[in-house]
Amino acid sequence: AQKKAAAGLSPASAATGEFSLYAFNASLLKLAGGAIGEADSRLLSGLPVYPGPRVVLSPLFRTTVGEALRRTSAASLVISSASSLVIDGDVTIEHLELDGALRVMAPIGTSVTIKHLVVRNAGYALRELSAGEIDSVETEEVLRLRGYCFDRKEERELVFTVPGAYIVDEH
């Protein structure tokens, strides 16, 4: 991977794949008119990565690109570059300001409209694993393969477990 990066090619590593998925999802929100923080380059295990906002849009939220745009196109949406956003389910965003971490879970049979929500918290911190952590059998295998983890500092969770229609309005 480092040889590929040195040659100007994609390293095709776990980190570049993971951050590319986050960037794709963030670009959908930007395409819908959102103000999404830009990623700054940094080295991770000697490889250049662009760890901008970590945006996860589940298949229940984003069955198609058009569906993702429909759910966010009327939104006033601001996400900082250090943020983490996970949306799973039938969720429509009208106004969201995020500087930190937010997880919205809406199982099948549940619809959520985020009318107005501002979240500011410590979020997650990207941390490269030490050599000792990578060599330790106590460290999960997936983390040893990645070479990094996200330490949870603080996260706002909106989890809806009873089917129905919900409106989040903290205006």
Q: Stretches where pLDDT falls below 50 for ≥5 residues?
A: none
CATH class category name: Mainly Beta
What is the H/E string?
Answer: HHEEEEHEEEEEHHEEE
Helix content: 10-25%
Fold-level CATH name: UDP N-Acetylglucosamine Acyltransferase, domain 1
Helix/strand structural class: alpha/beta
Say how many strands there are.
12
Report the radius of gyration as a whole number of Å: 17 Å
N-end to C-end Cα span = 47 Å
Based on the coordinates given, report the CATH architecture.
Answer: 3 Solenoid
Question: What is the strand content?
Answer: 35-45%
The geometry reads as globular
Write the layout of secondary structure elements.
Layout: H1 2-6, H2 14-31, E1 35-36, E2 42-44, E3 47-49, E4 54-57, H3 65-72, E5 76-79, E6 84-93, E7 95-99, E8 101-120, E9 124-128, H4 131-135, H5 141-146, E10 148-152, E11 156-159, E12 164-169
Parallel strand pairs: 1-5, 4-6, 5-7, 6-8, 7-8, 8-11, 8-12
Antiparallel strand pairs: 2-3, 9-10
Task: Explain what this protein looks like in three dimensions.
- It is a single chain.
- With 171 residues, the protein is α/β, with parallel strands linked by helices.
- The protein has one domain: UDP N-Acetylglucosamine Acyltransferase, domain 1, CATH 2.160.10.
- It is 25% helix and 42% strand.
- It contains 5 helices and 12 strands.
- The strands form 3 sheets. Strands 1, 4, 5, 6, 7, 8, 11 and 12 form an 8-stranded parallel β-sheet that branches. It has a two-stranded antiparallel ribbon with strand order 2-3.
- A hairpin with a 2-residue loop joins strand 2 and strand 3.
- The mean pLDDT is 90.
